[in-house]
Structure formats: C-alpha cells, structure tokens
Write a structure and sequence with these properties.
Number of strands of chain B: 12
Radius of gyration of chain A: 19 Å
Number of helices of chain B: 24
Distance between the termini of chain B: 57 Å
Oligomer: heterodimer
Structural class of chain B: alpha/beta
CATH topology of the largest domain in chain B: ABC transporter involved in vitamin B12 uptake, BtuC
Distance between the termini of chain A: 46 Å
Shape of chain B: elongated
Chain lengths: ~300, ~600
Amino acid sequence: MGAAELVQYVATGVLVGGVYALMSIGLALIFGVMRVVNFAQGDFMMLGMYLTYFYTLSGVVDPLLGALLTIPPFFVLGWIVHRGLLARVTGGGDPQRQMDAQLILTLGLSLVITNATTMILSPTPLGIRTPYATQAFALGPVLLNQARSYAFGMALLLALAVYGFLTRTDLGKALRAAADDPEAASYQGIDVRAMHGLAFGTGIALVAAAGGLLATYHPIEPTVAGNFIVLMFVAVVLGGLGSIPGAFVGGLVIGLVQSLTLLVLPFQLQNTGVFIVFLLVLYLRPQGLFGRRARTV
Amino acid sequence: MPSRARGWLAVAAVVAVGVALTFGVQERYHHRVLTLVFLWAAMGLSWNIISGYAGQISFGHQVFFGIGAYVTVLLIVKAGLTPWIGMIVAIGVAVLAAVLIGMPTFRLAGIYFGLATLAYPLIFRIVMDWLGFQEVAIPMKREQPGWFMQFSDPRSFDLLALAVLAATLMLSRAIETSRLGYRLRAIRENEQAAEAMGVDSFRCKMIAYMLSAAPAAVVGAVYVHAILFIVTPEAVFGLLVVSQTLVVCLVGGTGTLWGPVIGAALMVPASEILDTTVGDRLPGIQGVVYGGALILIMLYAPEGLYWRARQLLLGRAGRGTDAARSAVVAPAQHGAAAVAPMDRALLEVRGVSKAFSGLQALSDVSFDAREREILGVIGPNGAGKTTLFNVLNGFLAPDVGQVRFLGHDATGQRPSALCRLGVGRTFQVPRTFPHLTLSENVMIGAFVHVRPVPDARRLAHAALGRVGLADRADALPSGLTTLDLRLMELARCLATEPRLVLLDEPLAGLSGDGVAVMIGAIRSVRSLGATVVIIEHTMQALLSLADRLIVLDQGRRLADGTPTQVTQDPAVIEAYLGKRWLARMGGR
C-alpha cells in the first residue's frame, strides 16, 4: 500500500466524517441541554433527505441549497414535537424517570416516522442526480469526490455557525446555562422549557440539513435511519455525551475509522471498526474524549 | 405481597387460558397470532429480568434471541442435530455471551450501559453477514418432523410457545420472590445504597443478565421454527426485535411478571390484525402501531398498564395490612456510662490521604475506633468528613494509607464486602429505595446474613421495632418525616448486624424532640455492642453523646481526645469553635 493510497483513504474518511459531524452535533445539542438521547434523530435525517429530494424535483433548487432550506421547516417541526410530545412527559416530578420516558417516547417516534414514511412514500430507494456527484477534484494523486467535498464544506460552515451561536449570542449563552443547571438558569429568568424547545428544534434542523447534504451522494430510503443513528450515537459518546466540539470531532473520527477499516477488513465489516472503537471508548473513557462530567462511583 | 400459593396459581391460570385458547381457535392464522403472543410475552419477561427488576435498560437484548435462532439452525444444517438439543446448546452459548458482554458492560452506568448494549447485536449482524449466513433456511426433515420441531399441527407450536412462556413466568416468579429479586430492585432504586447495605451489585447484575439470556435464546430458537423458517441477521439481530420486546414490556409495565404478558396480549393481536387487514396497502402499519403505542403510553401511563390498573384498583393507600401493628417501642435509654468502651481497636486508620483533581480532601489522617466506643468526628464544612466515611465504607479507595478493620486490611474493598464484614453506614441525605416499603428497605440489609425471605422480613420487623417504626413497616419512604427516614436508615443499617456503624450527620435537620429520639437510638446501637462513629456539625449534641472526639480541618486531623480535652484545645478553638465558644463555655 502506497502513501498516496493511505492519504486517499484518510481524505475520503474526513469528507464523509464532516457530514457525520454535523448530524452528531444535532444529537449532542439535544442531549447536552435536555439529557435525552433522541432515538428519532436518524428519522429526522431521513425526512431531511426526502425534503431535499422534493426541493430538487422543482428543477430550480440545487440540492446543496435544498439542504439549507430544510433548516427552517425542521426547526419548526422540532419545536412542535418538543412542545406537543416531549414536554408533556413529566415523569411524576422525578427527573430520571422523565428522561427515561422521553427517551422511550423518541424510540416510539422513530418507529412511527420510519414506518409511516414507508407507508406514505414507498420503500423504493430514490436518488438525487447532480453533475458533481460523479466528478472529483484531483489533488495530485488524491481524488476528492465533488459532492462529498461540497457537503463537507457546508457541514463545516453550519457547525461553525452553531458554535458561534452557542458561544457568542445571549440566546446561545442562555441555552448553555439551561443545559448546565436548569434550576439555577430558571432563577435567572431563563425559560428552561423554551430552551429545551430551542435545542430540540435546532438539533432536528441540523440533522435534517446533514441529511440533505448526505442525499447528494447517498440513496434515500425510509430505513436509512437505522444505519446512521448508531453512527451518531458512537460519535456523540466518543466526543463526550453533550459536548458539541466533541461530537464534531467524534463524527470526523467515525468517518476516518470507517474509511481506514477498509484497509484491513472486507467491505461488509466496515462498521465493525466503528463499534470496536465505540466499545473501547466506553470501557476506557466513558466520559468521552471531551467529556467534563465524569460519572462518580 | 401476594402469598406464595397465589403467585403459582396465577401462573397456572395463564397456562389454563393458553391451553383453552389453543384448542378453542380454529384458523391457522389465529394459531400463528397465539404463538406470537406467547413468544413475545416470554421475550418481554426475559428482558424484564435485567431491565425491569434490575433497572439496567438494555437495547441489545435481541443478541440472545439471535444467538438462540442461529445456534439451533446452524446445528441442524451443519451437524444434523435436533433443535431440542440445539436449544440447550444455544442456552449455554447465550449465557456465555451474557458473561462476556456483562463483564465489561456492567462497569457502565445509566445511559452509557444502554448505548453500549446497542452495539453488540449490530456486531453480530455484521459478522453473520460476513460469515456468509445472510440467509439460512431450516432443512426439511420429513421423516422425523417432531424430532426436528417441524410440526404440521399449529397447536403444537402454540403449546410449545406456551410452555416457554410458562417456564419464563416461573423463572421470573422465582426471582421476584427471592433474595436476588429484592436485591435487584434495591440496585434499580439506588445502587450506592444497595452496595453500602452489602449487595454486591456487579455480581447480582451478572446473575440477572445470565438468567435473562437463557429464555431469550429459547424464544429465538422456537421463533425460527414456528414463524421464520429462514434466519437472516436482520430478522433476529435487528432493531425491530428489541423494539417489539420493549413495546410489550413498556405498554404492560416493567418490574412485574404481568406487564409483558398484558403487553403481548394486547399489542401482538392488534398489530397482526392490522397487518393482515390493511398491511398490503399500508406496509409499515405494524411499526406505526407499535411506535404510536409507545408514545401514547409514555404520555398517559409511563409506568405501564399493569401498574396504572393496580393503582386504580387498590387506591393510593392500599399496600396490604397483613403486618401486625406492634406497639411503638421507644428506643432504649442508656447513659453513656452504662456501656463502657473497651481498649481494643476495632478500626485502625493509618495515614490515609485522598485528593480529588488537586483538592486534598484528606491528608495523612490516622486514628483508632475502639470497640463499643461512640466516636465523634467534627469539623467545618469541607473538612473531609464525608470523604473519610466514603473511604471507611469502601466508596472511595484512599490514595495512600491503610484502613484496618477487625485486624484485617480493609483498604480499597468494595462497600458490599465491607458491609458483610460488619461496616454499616447511613447517609447525610437519607438514601432510600423509594419504591420499596420500609420493611423491604430494611430487608435489603437483613439479607446480608439470611437468605430466606421470611427470615429477612422477621429481622427487618425486629430492626424497625428497635427504632420505633414497627407500625410503619408497610409504608413507602415517600411519606416519611426526616426523623423517620433517618431512623429507617439506622434500622436498615442495624439489620446488617454491623460491628461498626458510621452515621453521617444523623441529627441534621431534626427538631429538638427529634434530636432526643435520635440520640436515644444511637445509644441503643452501642448497647447492642457496636462501635459508632458519628459525623456532626453541632458540637453541643456530641458533647453529651461521644466518648471521644476527632476534629478534622482541611483534611487534617487537628485533635483527638475526650470532649473536654478537645474543646479546650487552642488549635480547635482557633480553627473551628471560635473564641466566642470559649467565652460561652467558660461563662457557664
């Protein structure tokens, strides 16, 4: 194996990882603020792929723009799902029970979305045809698929925008305050429930946009969520549950591991490498690479 | 608490209804639904053992289901082995897998455990694909259909599935009514408190996991023969298998025998009927129904239908009144002089230091606690008192130094092991098992020395009587006052028959009368022959109670002596008591 081949695998891994990173920060944001692992995250991604597909059917919207245009409707959808379903689960005042019940609720939501999509649209895979899906930028001997390169660039920009929002704006700071200590935040006049809605809406919008970017080079089908939700979980745990920069790095690492696994294992075993990394991280460093909150005893 | 006989009778009733249905329904399709109900109920029960009773929510339980399916089918294909024997092999493989998965995974807590369990079936799926087992069909054995579980009469599968359900019900029932069952519930409610009360949580979880793997493997094996006929990784290791298991349990209610049975009886027929009536036009209808059921149940009855129905039937108050209301036994009053401390050291602490990321919580602390002594540990906030207790009962291992108990090295042992040796403790904020009655709370402590449940219950009642809570034995902790909670914790600790009792601020938050009751109870502990070490803020109460005082300040031992010596120690006055104390004491 030559050095060029290795660079090729690394480059491919990083490009794919960028989109994973965008999906994962959506999940991390929701977990970080609400302490809920959203099992339906992959299904919202799948819906984002379909919406982007429908945008492109019009003939005037480029899929990359379409991916951006999924953000407003999915933010609203996420807000509504939070207000209409998740916020109604109280757990009888016990926060642990509330989070458990919310987690199970998202599992139910995931089942409903996947199967309702199968029912309404068909299980037949769809694809978006773009001129750049089959072309590549050549950097010396290394070829970068154009669709993946554009998707990577957009993912990076969106991730930076989210990071800027969280660290530079008052609303972003309020969101982080609500995440760190809901009780203290509410004493400061922060509406914690609204912050949860904001986090859920933003998290869903981000994963939908990531779905739109993914759709430029990945087939669109109702069951696509199952393959990606686990990758998102792995990325988020890898980065430290709830850490946004951690999830971003986690996503990149997943892309890299997937790509580099191909160097040593056959194609069917591609994700085995990911799961092995996942289990190793869980056992050796359960708080993740960037986790602050180590679990006590 | 239903009596033993009533529990077995209920299992028999399920079997009777199952048999009646088996011979009552006519259509082949109805038999299929019936088989599915039995199998999913059994699968739900198997998940319920580890996730319901022990509260370790697993999203990967289908790993054992898939192992059951693949092992039996591959044994037929590769070795011509009958599935009746193959099933037993499959149980062995599944239990072994449970050990291998559980060993590392039970080190994780909460959501980390759940997420880790997701990975295992996915790994199996990928590996099965890779090994070329994407589709393994059961070979037809026309000569010996019964020997190869290939019945033509659908009632045979109904009965087989019912037998699996009955066996799983009996297993669940046996767990529920055993010491293990109580301990699993204690772990679910509060793992740290359970550990401190002598429950080896890792061991209990491992046993529960192994016990839950066996029925899942059998269900998987039968499911392949009755329903699938062709094994694929997706069909047996896929997320749908665990989703269906979760639906059945969560709709019915977890932590009980009846939840999965109720859930399966409702959900399986509903989804099957919808699938046959509209399934060809709406291919995902089953998933929508299952998902919708999960959402609705989380919104309107998150505890599950069984618990909701029980709550409605029994009302809020009822939890049985079979326990005799014994008279309130006032704690025995003993003067400090009545039982003199002995010279022999029970506990020896030598040069113990502990730091948390830079903060030195304890530095080079040494002292002894003598037998039958009441030793007070005082010091300002942040002096390291609770850290000291956490080191003494094994929650924390010291960075350096040694703790010797009864002459043995006790440094770094698990809390449950130390508890079995005779170290009991209470917590600064009482840690109860909230959904267990007081008597069940105390029974967890009593199980350290007795295995049979009735014996533990008797000991628990005795311990509750000693602190004057006999009449509240069947109440839940949620309705109790701080004093009652502290007394309950003390009773739970006493039920472990401790030689050393560590009390973390037992007087905090108590009224004047409460303080008197608690002090009486603490004296009675010593009169039982135990050594007591108390952390307190309030010097006043300790002066009359303690034989000796140790003062901690910023992790160091500042003084050690009789109350009189310590309160006159200039260093103590400087660091902790203040000049005004001296003036007040002098003025009296």
